[in-house]
Amino acid sequence: MIDMKPLYVLVVDFFCLFVFLGFWFVFFLTLKYCSISSMLPKIKNFHFLPVLFLETPTWLIQIQSVWNILNLLQKNIVHFLVAILEVSVLCELWEANEIRFVFLFSEASQLPSRKTLGEGIFQRTECHSSAVKYSNKVLFDGKKVGKILSNTSACVVFPHPDLSFAWIFNEYPSFVQEDSRRFVSQETGHLYIAKVEPSDVGNYSCVVTSRASRSPVLGSPTPLVLRTDGVMGEYEPKIEVQFPETLAAAKGSTVKLECFALGNPVPQINWRRTDGLPFPSKIKLRKSNGMIEIPNFQQEDAGLYECITENSRGKNIARGRLTYYAKPHWVQPIQDVEVAVEDTLSWECRASGKPKPSYRWLKNGEQLAIEGRIQIENGALTISNLNLTDSGRYQCIAENKHGVISSSAELRVVASAPDFSKSPMKRLIQVQIGSTVDFECKPRAFPKAKCSWKKGGEQLQENERISLLKDGGLRVANVTKGDAGTYTCLATNQFGTAKGSTSLVVTGGCSQTTSLELLMGRNLLSCSAAFEQPQKFWWIFFSPFYFCASGDLMIRNIQLKHSGKYVCMVKTEVDSVASAADLIVRGSPGPPEHVRVDEITDTTAQISWQEGTDNHSPVTTYTIQARTPFSVGWQRATTVPDVIDGRTFTSTVVDLNPWVEYEFRVVATNKIGGGEPSLPSEKVRTEEAVPEIPPSEVSGGGGSRSELVITWDPVPEELQNGEGFGYVVAFRPSGTSTWIQTVVTSPDTPRYVFRNESILPFSPYEVKVGVYNNKGEGPFSAVATVFSAEEEPSTAPSGVSATSLSSSAIQVSWTAIPWKMSNGRLLGYEVRYWNKGQKEESSNRVKAAGNETSIKITGLRSNLDYYTAVRAYNSAGAGPFSATVNATTKKPPPSQPPGNVVWNVTDSRVLLSWEEVRAMDNESQVTGYKVLCRSSQGGLQELSTAGTTAELWLQLQDDYLIEVRATSEGGDGSSSQQILIPRLASTFSPFPLSQLLSASFGDVVR
Prior knowledge:
Largest sheet: 5 strands, mixed
CATH architecture of the largest domain: Sandwich
Number of helices: 4
Helix content: under 10%
Number of domains: 11
Low-confidence stretches: 1-5, 30-151, 509-513, 985-1006
Strand order of the largest sheet: 1-2-5-4-3
Distance between the termini: 166 Å
Strand content: over 45%
Mean pLDDT: 78
CATH class of the largest domain: Mainly Beta
Structural class: mainly beta
């Protein structure tokens, strides 16, 4: 039978079990989430923002000081990391109870030391910047405002200098445009509206962009609404955005000070220095004077600055002092070194900065303890009597209150017995009698080995010919045959002993070593010997043997690599002799080395280099060459001094263009010639400067009505001298003194058009174009005269008349219009004409040049009324037409040609006759006749007569063609059939042809 417990007992058991499990559940949660996070609200000066960190819940914390929470967190810390993020913020990762915290610091000086956090608890390593990812959640806080009330909208994000802020009004891409009434702070991200207007009502969204990622983050929209329960009155400026009372600025940095005030009316903002000094040209006022920007901050820019906000109700002033500082930067960092045990190490690190940096040294991450043999003075570390325990990773840390830099290097303290494996002694040395020979003994040994020498088995002692050198070597002077043999160097230190040997061969009966100099390209070495017996010659250069029957050694196209010692050996059956010579091949210098730019300004560069090989001919001069993206290859640079002596290894390049990227290289020259150029230096950019070259070809003209068009050739990029390049266009009516100026911000723009209804047509203007950039304004071009745009002539020509010339032509004449009425440069006149059967709209048009006052119109129909009108035109268009005039073309000329033309020749006299031509009723009456005489040589004469006969005198030995036409008011009629008069056989007449053409009845000869 199962013993059943009472129901209340079961209830109590379940309750106890529930309490037990609940206790552990709550305890677990407390350990996991509450032990640290419960402390966080109590910590001051914190701003918490959730982030993702290695798939673990993490808090990103901006902290002013870490010291006030160390005691709270120290017991729970598991491990500690320090990293430098891409966004240039120092971070610390703390992990406690599986909750991680990333503490961000604005300065490295805020980082806690190991001693502060507890000895032996933490280790420091590098963490990657990808470990921290910012949350893309942007907190937005907006406020409802009343009618004509000032407003501030907040964009709350984690503060960081790499963020930029903008605001969208209603919909993208309608961004809020900043002016004297609206201001977006790049320090806080807030939007300020000095005086709200009805047009400001709408939705506002904050846009935050990281300069590193370029990915904008959009906040949720917040409406700005109007309140109708009140009216905002006028009030004095209330400064909402102001700069700190004291702000330290780094050398060379760009300082931006913000100042903005609310008020009604909208306040005006001005800036000044309290010392009364004017602002230099580099200082820019932006955002309607709401921000002052000081680029390239220098010592002279430090001082007290004032922002003055003022309206009709009063004014307020914000003040702040800019102080100058320079973060530490290395002048001489430390490098890895290898030092022998028991030696002394002198390690110097030097940095500059303002205030002057202080130094401290770490070894393997620990503060280096100063003791008797370890001393630190002015950043220099000295360790005497080194031992193996001194090896390690050392850090020299230089710091001032504005920054910390460190340089690390490894010290290796080495202890080893002497070893010849890496620096063996020469196996064989061959010298002549009477010469001096040096034996080297340089084993690798730590500490340095002590060397002693033996010849064979005999210990060598110093005497007048034998010297023991300080580096362990041996020198034997005035060598004799008895000095030949094997020399042994015995190297010893406390860790062991090693030895090396060299064999000495002494040759006799030959001359001493000589030197032979050859230029590159020469190719013959001679060797001769006097022997009674046959001899053989060998040449030795390094190790190869060359056999020569005559004793001459031929080296074709000798090069620098052939320099060295040559030994000529002569051998007979009973003896041998050798003679040595040093061959020196002289050539042009090798390239200089390590070319670098030590200092650069806007127009100069200090260049230094190291000497290359002179190839046995001293360098006489150096030449510096420069190259830019705009040059064609390498160009010789202008230097000071102009001629660089061969013993000089630094020079100043002058006449450079500001704000241009340069490379430099150096060429050495000796008596042989110029050598190969050095490798190029690193690319460097000259500093910015005020532009010096104005635009060229300043002119203009043309355009539309009421326009003044000014053109120029843009300044090339290499002459713009800096960023922010643009043009200042100045112009004024001729005869006036006040210039009108405007700015063209695009450096590639070649023209500017000024439009104003007050501009008179074709009026002369004096124009000039200047240049500017971020450094200031440059010169103006020469003044040029440009005329404004023309207008069409305002009046029609007067005195228009039309005269009939023939059956197909009329002449139209007029009086030129006055110059003042032309409204420009008169190009000419346009004449339109039409006949009685045509419409005026379909009239034909012809043009006459501007200096003409008549025109002949041809190709017309006969006996027909033609109407015509004239107007003037210029480049702007045509003026009004004159009154219409008309003329009637003549009747057509007679269609019947002269018939029955009869001719006879007597000597050089030709008599012509023909039948009379009678015109028809619709033709012009005959007024006379025209005789045309054309020679085979191309000469043409014309004779007019009223009758039907003509007399011609022909004198040339030539053939002639003669034809006759009737003339009338309507023009010339049809030609008769041509008459061929063959070459005359009569003698040459002394009279010209024009005098030999005569007509009956006293008619005119043409």
